[in-house]
Design brief:
By secondary structure, this protein is mainly α. It contains 17 helices and two strands. The protein has three domains: 44 residues, no CATH class; 234 residues, Cytochrome Bc1 Complex, Chain C, CATH 1.20.810.10; 152 residues, no CATH class. The longest helix has 32 residues. It is globular and about 85 Å long. Bound molecules: protoporphyrin IX containing FE. Protoporphyrin IX containing FE (HEM) binds next to helix 4, helix 6, helix 7 and helix 10.
Length: 460
């Protein structure tokens, strides 16, 4: 047995881990050695020993995937504590949380950490998706991981939505009423689907029980399984995407521990500090107990569904809640499988042309969305302009065809005007749609007052 492979029983803990990771494995001579071998094996299965130097720069990924993971873990930890106090029934839910906040030490803090982690994870995930999109990291060999990622996003949204009802205050009751009300517009099966989601005709204790079971068992289970698959695929793809410089040979690498680990720990500690600060300064609200007989005005969906509620004000419901979401979801799912010329993956915006076309797309979305909303709200009334035509055509198919025409026209425009390739043009179209949806969400949240009329935020 060589000297370097033997363990020194008197060495410090850190020295032993360090030595075993970088100078070769410790051969088990004692139970203590065996434990360290298990620890190192776990650590190095999750992360490689060496990582490309270019990928540990903060601006390469902004650590958004890791931040999402940490927020999910915070959600699970704080959620497990909340379960000790929460009572899943329409009579007990609100009181149990009020008493948690009033009578339990740090009860309000735990609830607020849960609330902020839930909102921040949606935000972090949107930015993570944007990062993956703008660096072209969804292409082969990562295309399946893009699909796993979309399933994760769906799980996080479902987790947020099912959790939204649980406080059973006015806001949560009416937000869930609105979102489940949108489902009714799905042709043929809408009414049935709505009753399945509500677990009955009305929202009540059986809805709380169904949402509680999904929120605390099924969705977290799916999240854990999908996250494991997601990280394994990242590892299988050789780590995160990086620019492939032709003829540059093998990339320069650095040791994961301490180079990358120390950066990740710094990001994690900063994020935890931010969540705690937000939870202390802006604690989660608990409004008056739900009153099914009195709807607040305006009654709004949770912020991440506000874009759809805003769409409902401009499109026929069939298009707002079915056709547009299905077309967008199909576009996102098929994105990695679209045939394009070789793209410069790993480069932000793919190329200088990509940078320019992305800027043009964002600017167009920023200007055209508010303009379209104002025109639709104050200048054009399709029902009056096209009398006798059913609303599903005048409010639905017609504006949808115009929207589709704008998107296709924009795709052709960036190709011809800027000489963009397929990848850059597709990227620009997604940025355009993403900007439109973000503006719709902002308008719904901050610019809609009583009766969903347009108002300045300071007049709400
Ligand atoms: C709970 C949700 C999620 C977690 C915890 C998570 C976590 C991560 C982490 C830690 C990475 C490694 C690099 C990085 O930090 O960016 C990563 C990469 C990746 N993620 Fe996610 N992710 C989630 C959701 C998503 C979503 C919604 C998508 C896209 C729809 C997605 C697509 C990808 C892809 C394609 C990669 C590989 C990127 C590359 O190689 O550069 N992920 N994710």
């Amino acid at each position: 047995m060589s000297e370097s492979r033997q363990s020194d029983p008197n060495a410090s803990l850190i020295a032993r881990v360090w030595r075993s990771v970088f100078r070769g494995p410790i051969l088990p001579e004692s139970d203590r050695d065996r434990k360290w071998i298990v620890f190192n094996t776990l650590l190095l299965h999750a992360r490689p020993i060496r990582v490309p130097a270019s990928t540990i720069r903060y601006t390469h990924t902004f650590g958004l995937g890791g931040m999402s993971l940490l927020l999910v873990l915070l959600l699970m930890g704080s959620g497990a504590l909340l379960m000790l106090a929460y009572e899943p029934s329409s009579q007990g839910a609100h009181d149990s949380l009020a008493s948690l906040e009033r009578d339990v030490l740090f009860g309000r803090l735990v609830r607020s950490v849960h609330y902020w982690s839930a909102n921040l994870v949606v935000f972090a995930l949107c930015l993570h998706v944007l990062r993956v999109l703008l660096t072209g990291a969804f292409r082969g060999p990562r295309q399946f991981n893009w699909i796993v990622g979309l399933s994760l996003l769906a799980c996080v949204l479902l987790s947020n939505f099912t959790g939204y009802l649980l406080p059973w205050d006015q806001d949560s009751y009416w937000a869930v009423t609105i979102v489940t009300g949108m489902v009714e517009y799905v042709p043929l099966v809408g009414g049935w689907l709505q009753r399945v989601i509500r677990s009955g005709a009305e929202i009540g204790t059986s809805t709380i029980l169904t949402f509680y079971a999904l929120h605390t068992t099924f969705v977290p289970g799916a999240l854990i399984a999908l996250m494991a698959l997601h990280f394994w695929r990242v590892r299988k793809a050789g780590g995160v995407v990086r620019p492939d410089v032709p003829g540059a040979g093998r990339p320069e690498t650095v040791l994961f521990l301490p180079n990358l680990l120390i950066r990740e720990v710094a990001v994690a500690l900063t994020l935890i500090a931010c969540v705690l600060a937000l939870a202390m300064v802006f604690p989660a609200a608990l409004g008056e107990a739900a009153n099914p007989g009195m709807s607040p005005n305006p009654a709004k969906a949770p912020w991440y569904f506000m874009g759809f509620q805003e769409l409902l004000l401009h499109f026929d419901p069939v298009f707002a809640v079915l056709v547009i979401p299905v077309v967008v979801a199909a576009g996102l799912l098929s994105l990695p499988y679209l045939r394009c010329e070789a793209a410069r993956e790993g480069n932000w915006f793919l190329s200088d042309t990509g940078r320019r076309t992305t800027g043009v797309a964002a600017l167009l979305g920023l200007v055209a969305t508010p303009a379209w909303i104002v025109i639709d709200e104050f200048l054009i009334d399709p029902a009056a302009s096209l009398p006798g035509i059913p609303p599903v055509l005048s409010y639905g198919a017609l504006p949808f065809a115009i929207l589709l025409g704008v998107v296709v026209g924009f795709f052709v425009f960036v190709k011809r005007r800027y000489g963009a390739g397929d990848s850059e043009s597709i990227q620009a179209v997604f940025i355009l749609l993403g900007t439109v949806f973000s503006i719709l969400t902002l308008i719904g949240v901050w610019f809609r007052g009583k009766g969903m009329a347009l108002k300045w935020p300071w007049n709400l």
